[in-house]
Amino acid sequence: MENEDIAVLTEWNNSPILVKALSILVAVLMFLMMGLTFADVVGRYGFGQPIPGGFEIIEFVMGTMIFSAIPVVSHYNSHINVGLFDHAFKGNVRRVQQTFVLMFSTVTIGFMGWRLWDEAMRDHLSGKVGQQLDVPVAPVIFGMAGLSFLACLLLVLLTVNYLRTGIEPVASGSLD
């Protein structure tokens, strides 16, 4: 086992139970989506009988999976980033840059959560349902908004911790 593997395991052991639960949920949803897609394709092309509403179910599962992963990625500070000019920033300039990135991420995900909440409220009040399954879409969108707000909260905590300690939040497996 390499040092990087041990670091990832240590991070996993020190993670809050909510982050662990969301990580497991993401894995289960990904497996469900994979199995459902496989069964739908086999049913469609092998037997001429696709799963009724399969596409819509996959949409719901995919949205839930993606938004369940955002708080996990936020907790580990593993967002995709481009370090093109990272070597140019040192000392206080680096601290300002990192603070700006964390705050920008917080505001962006908070805005996304607010827009999702607004959309969910509209869909709930109008009684909007899926096209094939006749299932209300608002609960899924409310869940996505809630998960966005959770990610926003985690980013606020990450930012406060960075400002308080000065220790840069580094993604696991990072080259830094």
Task: List strands and helices in order, with pairings.
Blueprint: H1 3-13, H2 17-46, H3 54-75, H4 91-126, H5 138-165
Helix pairs in contact: 2-3, 3-5, 4-5
Provide a descriptive summary of the structure in words:
With 176 residues, the chain is mainly alpha-helical. The protein has one domain (3-165). The protein contains five helices and no strands. The chain has helices at residues 3-13, 17-46, 54-75, 91-126, 138-165. α2 packs antiparallel against α3, α3 (54-75) packs parallel to α5 (138-165) and α4 runs antiparallel to α5. The longest helix has 36 residues, at 91-126.
Briefly, what is this?
By secondary structure, the protein is mainly alpha-helical. The chain is built from five helices and no strands.
